Amino acid sequence: MDSGLNRKRSFLFIRFHPWLKRFSLLLSCFILVFSASSARETHLTILFTNDHRGQVDPLPSTDPSQPVGGVTRRASLIKKIVAEVGPSKVLLVDSGGMFTGTAFSDLTSGEADCAAYQLMQYDAVGLGPHDFDYGKKTLVEYRKIFRIPWVSANTVVRNNFQNFMRPYILKYAGVRVGMIGFSNPDTPALTRRDNISGLIFNPPGASAQGLHSILKKDADFFIALSQLGVEGDRKLAKDNPFLHVIIGGYSRTLLDKPIVETKADGSLAGPLIVQAGSQGLYLGRLDLTVEGHHDPKTKKEEYFVRDYKYQLIPITSDLPDDPAMAALLERYKAKLKSKPLEEVLATVTGDLTESSGGDSLIGETTADALRKAAQTEVALVNNGFFNPVFKSGELTREVLYGLCPADSEITIMDVPGTFLRKALEASAEKRGQEGFLQISGLKAQKEGEELKILVGQEPLNDRRKYLVAVNDFLAEGNGGYDSFQRVKSRRKIHTSLRDLLEEALKEKSQIGPADLEKRWSLP
Q: At what angle do helices 497-508 and 361-374 cross, to 10 degrees?
C-alpha cells in the first residue's frame, strides 16, 4: 500500500512536472518584479546658495570667465534649470547670511535683498548672525511683507521658549522633504545684543534630535540649512545620521566636492555636506537619485541617496539678466539718489587697511571721528569692524559699505584706568587679529614686558576714570574685552559709526601714508 502510494505520488509529479516548471519560472519573475517595485526611486534637484551678504549687484571684473554674481543673472539661471528639470522636482534653498555687506543692501536695510529672494521664489532660507543686524522686529516685518520662508530650529523666544521663526518647512518634491534651519549659537557675539534681545540660541544638537522624533511622521528626506561653518557641519552630520543633505554656510567655504563618509561598498554613510562660497558668485546644484525601501519593522518607507551629481555653477557676465529682477533693482536704486553709490568720498594714496604694525589708516581715521563726535578723551574700535577689501584709489560710498559691512552705534563709558590698561595689554597680544584695537587719544609703547600708555600727554592713571567711546562690539564685552561689559556708567548714542567715518573722509578728501601717526609701538 505504501509502495502504491509512492508510485501514485511519483506519477502525479511526472505528469504535472512541465506545468510546475512553468509555474516556478512565473513565480520567480513575479518575485523579481515585486522586489523591484518595493524600491521606489525618485529624482530631486537642490539648487542652493549661502552667505549672500547683500550682494544684489554683480562684482566688478574685467575677466569674463570669472564669476561676478548678481541676482539678475542668478534669477535667469534658476529659471533655466527649473524649466529643464520641472518645478515639482526642484528645491531652491539658502542656508542664511542674506544681509549686511554692500551699500545697496544696507541703504535699503536689507529690503532689496528680501524682494529679490521673494522674486526668485526660495523654498526655505536659513537665519545667519548678521540677518539680525537690522533688528529682530525688521525680520518679523520682512517675513510678513515678502513672505520670506526663514527657518531656525534653535532660535527661541526667552519668555515662552517658542521658536522665533518656524523651525522647518515641509514640501513634497517626489518625496516628502523636511528643510530644517540651524542658526549659529554664537550669534549673540556676532551682532549687537539689542538686535536679539529676548532670544536664545540653543546648541543645534538637541534641536536636531528633538525635531527628528517629530518630523519622521511627516517627512522622509531631511535637509539641514546650517550657519555653523564647515567644522560645525561635520559634527552635525556625525551626530545626526538621519540627515541626508547639509547645505552649509557662515564659513563661506567653496566646496568643489561634497564632504561625505562612505561605507566599504561605496554607499553613503552619512549626509552630504555642501557649500557654495559666498556673495552669490556660484549657484550650487545637487542632483540626487533618492531610493525608498519599505521597512517591515517601522512599516514605512526608508529613503537614502543612491547616487548624486554635484556642480558649482559660476554666475558669469555672459549669463543673461532676468528682466523682472532688473526692473525690481532699478526701482530700489531710484530711491537712493540722495546717496549715490558711485559718489567719491576721498582719494586714498596709500594702503588704507594695512595693519601689520598695528595701526591702520582706516583705523586711526575712524577712531578719531568717533572721539570727535563723542567728545571723549579716548576712542577705541576693534579691527573686526573693518573688512580689508580696498587698498587705494577712489573710495566711493559703495566701497565704504564694503569696508565697514556691519555698522555700529556708539557707547560712551566712564572706564576705570585699570580696565583701560587691561584692555590695551590684551590688544597688544592681538596685533593683526580682529580683536586688535585702533586707538585715538592714546599712545602705547611696548618696552620689554611692560606696556607704557599715554592718555594725551599724561601716563595712564589706574586710579582715575576716563571718558571712553567705543563701538557696539567692544561695549558688549566681545573679543576678550569683558571688563567693558562690567562698566555701569554708560550711555548710548544712536549715531552710525560708518556715517561718522564717511563725513571724516569727505572732509579730508585725500588720505595717504603721511596721515598715519602710528600710535602703537610694538616690537
A: 110
